Amino acid sequence: MPQRPAHLCFIGFGEAATAFLSGWDIARPAHITAYDRKTDIDASRALQLTQYAAHRVTPGLSLKAALQGADTVFCLVTADEACAAARAAAPYLAKGALWFDGNSCAPSTKRQAAAVIEAAGGRYVDLAIMSPVHPLRHHAPLLIAGSHTDAANAALQALDMKPRAVGAEVGRASAIKMIRSVMVKGLEALTAECLLSAHRAGVADEVLASLTASHPGIAWPRQGAYNLERMMVHGTRRAAEMREVAITIADLGLGGEMAAATALWQDRIADSDTAPGADDLALRAAALLARL
């Protein structure tokens, strides 16, 4: 049985970190610290400290303090902060520490972060979380890539997680997730543009009936309500991811315009600051349209 990490540190303490923690039982490391920059902000400090306490995590009141002695680090910030987090952490990273970069970034962004971590003596792991973390929590499927996949696989298995190595090249795990997101997050954006337009034009019933006739395997009202809820709750984070997807596609010489347009819709829905409310497409659409 692989040995659990002795000291695990989370950088970024949001949905993914708390989902993993809530799933770990006997696999939980003895010492867990965390740092989130919300701790540095007066308006969010108290709530962030409450979150740490609820999950029995030692708060790092600075990045340096959280990383002190950590042999395993999960970097779970936002896509646009991944490189900045690596640069900020590098001076305090223990030699040989595993750095799991679970951020939804372009392969080229992951390679930049990897160069920083490796230069500091850390062991960088390209980590892609391939499903929502709820309800699977720590059993969400993970892809890992890079030159340290054997050590990474052992550490993740010791945490009762579900990794699969996909290659020795940093960016390969990220490429799989990024390219998949063109479809997954793109469908959300298509849902928003199509169904919100249909409701505003007063033709929602007719459009939904036509979609159902063409694609009877999809429960359009239910799927539409779900897709809108994902954007309303997680749109800001999804938009950051889709900007990284656009970079991924552009780096492949294929433009990336659709991914960029998806980011605009994700931001638009999130910026409306609309509560999801009841799980009903018509009510959810009406609430959004009142703010758009």
Written overview of the protein:
The protein is built from eleven helices and eight strands. An eight-stranded mixed β-sheet has the order 3-2-1-4-5-6-7-8, with helices on both faces. The chain is an alpha/beta fold and 292 residues long.
How do you describe this structure in short?
The protein is α/β, with parallel strands linked by helices. The protein has helices at residues 15-23, 42-54, 63-67, 82-89, 107-119, 149-158, 172-201, 204-214, 220-251, 257-271, 281-289; strands spanning 7-11, 31-35, 58-59, 72-75, 98-101, 123-129, 141-145, 162-165. It has an eight-stranded mixed beta sheet with strand order 3-2-1-4-5-6-7-8, with helices on both faces.
List the helices and strands and how they pair.
Elements: E1 7-11, H1 15-23, E2 31-35, H2 42-54, E3 58-59, H3 63-67, E4 72-75, H4 82-89, E5 98-101, H5 107-119, E6 123-129, E7 141-145, H6 149-158, E8 162-165, H7 172-201, H8 204-214, H9 220-251, H10 257-271, H11 281-289
Parallel strand pairs: 1-2, 1-4, 2-3, 4-5, 5-6, 7-8
Antiparallel strand pairs: 6-7
Helix pairs in contact: 4-5, 7-8, 7-9, 7-10, 7-11, 9-10, 9-11
Provide keyphrases for this structure.
alpha/beta; 2 domains; 53% helix; 292 residues; 8-stranded mixed sheet; Rossmann fold; N-(1-d-carboxylethyl)-l-norvaline Dehydrogenase, domain 2; 11 helices; 12% strand
